[in-house]
Amino acid sequence: VNAAKQVLFVDDDASIRLIASLALERVGGFRVALARHGREALEMVAKGRPDVVLLDVMMPFLDGPATLAALRRRYSADHLPVVFLTAALQSEQLAQLHRLDAQGVLGKPFDPMRLAADLRLLLGWEPT
Amino acid sequence: VILTDAALNRLHEPERLAWIATLQGAAGRERGRIADIIRTTARLFDLPIASLNLIDATHQLTFAGIGVEDGATEELSRSLCAQVVAHNAPLLVSDTLNDPRLTLHPAVHSFSPPIRCYYGVPVHAPNGTAIGTLAVAGFQPRDLTGEIAQLQSFAAWIESEWARDHYAQRMEAERALAERFAAITSSIADGVLVFDREGRMVHANRLAEHQMGLCAPLPPAADLLEVIPPGPARNNLAWLIRHGPPRVPIRRDVILRNAHGRETPIEVTLSCTDDEAWFVAIGHDVSERVQHERTLAALSQRFESILEAAADAIVRVNRKGLVEYANSAMGTLLGVPRASLLGINLHAAHHHHRPDNAPYPWSECPTHRAIREATAARELEEVYWRADGTPITVAYSVTPVTDPADGSITGAVMVMRDIEARRRLERLKAAFIANVSHELRTPLTAIKGSLALLLGDAVGAVSEEQRSLLDIAHNSSDRLVRLVNDLLDLGRLDAARLILHKRRIGLGQLAKTAIDGIAAHAQEAKIRIETTVHPEVGPQLEVDADRIVQILTNLLANAIRFSPPGSRVRVSSRVQQREVRISVRDWGDGISPEARDTIFDRFVQAASEDGRTLGGTGLGLAISRELAHAHGGRLGLGNVRYGSIFHLWLPLPVARGEP
Questions:
Q1: CA-to-CA distance for B136 and B119, rounded, in angstroms?
Q2: Burial of residue B556 (number of CB atoms within 10 Å: 0-12, 13-18, 19+)
Q3: Going by fewer Cβ within 10 Å, which terminus of chain B is more open, N or C?
Q4: Which residue has the higher pLDDT, B165 or A68?
Q5: Are B73 and B61 in contact (CB under 8 A)?
Q6: How far apart are alpha carbons B262 and A67 in whole angstroms?
């Protein structure tokens, strides 16, 4: 009855987008939409709200935090959870991200076999 | 009878009395000539008494006389000659007893029989003042009125004798004085030139002539403007003659071309005599002083050019901390013009507070210590304050300066280097490393992700052969990720940019976190981790938990890597006085003696017996040790018979009196 949840994966690197879509669809059983940067992500969210946005931090046009801020102007965290996926693992940068109104931060490189499970754990969703 | 008070007063004139004293001291030869004149006078007038009487303030003194003894004295009241002098006019009496003024005058009756006729004319000193009387007298009445001119001629004769003597004496005295003066001036080492207001030479010693470039002695009264060669000496002279005597003595250095044609620095002091009639110029040869000054200036200029060329800031202070020298780099460092540093108290102006804004007393400044204890200090890190109030961190060395004469401390020299620039560079380097690491992560994420999907059969099954190759690729990418992480850590440690987020946490909890984190890996390697550290009990520390876990994880990972499958790794702890020691022990191959010294160096890895490096990055221990130091602790290698043991010492927090 429950349709698979939809993840909007936003990253400027095509390889990462492919790996993530495989990890989330094939391994994780999500539906996946892909965006190349923040602006595209906002356009896609406007057309149809996903269940979660998995957001890269450093991107052209509109970076992760700016995208989050734009999303939060329309959707509260309850309506649209956002999780950062970042290669910046320095504690100061992580602390900065945690202060933003996102539901979590996952690190790169991520293990594609575990990505979906980690995301579910973070958002408190039932494991499949 | 005749002498009025005014007339008497005239007899008291000091100049008159001085002349009388001078004439009385005349030599016998001169007295003889005067006596001849008196004798001639007496004979010519055919009278028994003729005398030259000097009149001082109280008495009449007979200088020479006929009918009166030489040297005889009379009180003024008994002197007719006093009348003549006092009034500076002849007194002519042909018959005293018929003259009502003199009938009873004691002078008339001081002779027996009394004097009947008296003729006296004033005799003047060379300056024209009346000082005595030439008088003739007789015991018979006699009218000599028609011959008075002759008496006056005799008086004039006496005067001319006196004048001649006087001028002769004066010239002699002047000559002697001039000789003495010349003797004095020729013996002194300075040039002496005396000249009048028209520039006529009064006196010059040989040295003065030489200094002014004259080869031959100056003739007396020479016009200096004509004889002195053109140049500063003549220009100054012309100026003086034009402007008159200076109000205060003038002293200045002039370069004069001397008689040998050599230019010589002369310090000329010019003053004038009290009556402003003469200028006196003293010329002091200061070549030696000027030479010294030039040498000194050249020397100090040379040293200064060296100090100026130095990129480091160099400053010298005296015992009180006042700046005696500062190079340009010092001014640049503190953001002030170099010249404005001279004389200021460097500590008070630029070193007054510590980095945490607490006051920094001079007594605690390393410079003060260097001066007080005569000890140098090298490469201290000190914060100075620029003129605009911003702090600047410098590497600072200070050396006390001793007086070579007595060895006492006269001040200190400080050398400072702005290490902000170095810091900036380090930050730049760290940022670069961070960037590179970040950029490396993206392709690594793609590689690792692809491999993991393949290995996880997410895109279809792979054969065993394919799997083993994919495993190699996957493990290698894992290592690359670790290497990138380590590089990032190291970059931050180097830049001292690592911020420790300290909090209170139990050692047991830290050990548990580290052990739990690596448990899966240990299990895979078939290593059992045992610990004597109870997760709930044990000392409380004040540390950055993530960083301590990082150290312990690194030690555990190393221990696991170098342990044979089926063996164990043990974690234990012991409180030692003010610190706690955490030990990680394995029973692997151990570390060779030659490797013991280098394993904490960067990119050094202990090799296993077959030469494999077993997947380390060679940075783990270097980073762990830096992290331990950052906590005020240390990391070291212990001695055990089998395998190896690493100890991590961490300071226990100081008790704060709380429960």
A1: 5
A2: buried
A3: C
A4: A68
A5: yes
A6: 89
Nearest residue to B48 (alpha-carbon basis) of B96, B118, B144, B99: B118
Which residues, 6+ apart, have CB-to-CB distance to B447 below 8 Å? B473, B477
- In three state form, how does the secondary structure of B35-101 look? HHHHHHHHHHHCCCEEEEEEECCCEEEEEEEECCCCCCEEEHHHCCHHHHHHHCCCEEECCHHHCCC
Give dist(CA B122, CA B16) in Å, integer.
13
pTM > 0.80: yes or no:
no
Which has the minimum average pLDDT: A11-25, A71-85, B592-606? B592-606
Q: Tokens in use for B562? A: 């170098």
**CB neighbours of B432 closer than 8 A, spacing ≥ 6?**
B491
Flag if B485 and A89 touch (Cβ within 8 Å). yes
Angle at B395 between CA B394 and CA B401, to 5 degrees: 110
For chain B, say whether A112 makes contact (Cβ under 8 Å): yes
Whether a cis peptide bond, with omega within 30° of 0, leads into B232 is no
Round to whole Å and give the CA distance between B474 and B465.
14
Burial class for B184, CB neighbours closer than 10 Å (0-12, 13-18, 19+) = exposed
- Name the CA radius of gyration of chain A, rounded: 13
The count of CB pairs under 8 A between chains A and B is 69
Consecutive H or E run containing B224: helix B224-227
Distant-in-sequence, close-in-space partners of B59: CB < 8 Å, separation ≥ 6: B73, B74, B75, B76, B79
Whether the Cβ atoms of residue B493 and residue B627 lie closer than 8 Å to each other: yes
Q: For residue B582, which of B520, B528, B624, B524 has the smallest C-alpha distance?
A: B624
Backbone angles phi, psi at A55, to 5 degrees: -120, 120
Residues of chain B found within 8 Å of residue A26, distances taken between Cβ atoms: 453, 458-459
The model's confidence at residue A89, banded by pLDDT at 50, 70 and 90, is low
* CB-based contact A16 B445, cutoff 8 Å: yes
**pLDDT reported for residue B7:** 76
**Other CB atoms within 10 A of residue B128 CB:** 8
Q: With contact defined as beta carbons under 8 Å apart, do B591 and B644 qualify?
A: yes
* CB distance B589 to B574 below 8 Å: no
To test the contact with chain B by mutation, choose from A17, A57, A91 the residue with the greatest count of B C-beta atoms within 10 A, namely A91
User: Which residues of chain B are within 8 Å of residue A54 when distances are taken between CB atoms?
Assistant: none
- The alpha carbon of residue B533 is apart from the nearest alpha carbon of chain A, in Å, by 28
Provide the shortest C-alpha distance from residue B427 to chain A (in Å): 15
Residue type, B214: L
Mean pLDDT by 10 residues, chain B (659 residues): 71 86 75 90 93 92 91 87 90 89 84 90 90 94 89 92 81 83 84 88 86 83 84 83 84 85 88 85 88 89 86 92 92 91 92 90 90 86 90 90 89 90 75 74 86 87 88 84 76 64 86 87 88 80 87 90 89 88 89 79 58 58 87 88 90 64
Contact status, residue B453 vs residue B445, Cβ threshold 8 Å: no
On the 0-12 / 13-18 / 19+ scale of CB atoms within 10 A, B648 is buried
The answer to whether B261 and B231 have CB atoms below 8 angstroms apart is no
Of the residues B442, B487, B546, the best mutation for testing chain A's interface (the one with the most A CB atoms within 10 Å of its CB) is: B442
Q: Do B335 and B387 touch, CB atoms closer than 8 A?
A: yes
DSSP state, residue B352: S
**Helix, strand, coil percentages in chain A from 3-state DSSP, rounded to 5:** 40, 20, 40
Residues on chain A touching B477 (C-beta within 8 angstroms): 109
**Locus of tokens 């990055």:** B617
DSSP string over B445-507: HHHHHHHHHHHTTBTB---HHHHHHHHHHHHHHHHHHHHHHHHHHHHHHHTT-PPP--EEEEH
What local confidence, expressed as pLDDT, does residue B133 receive?
A: 95
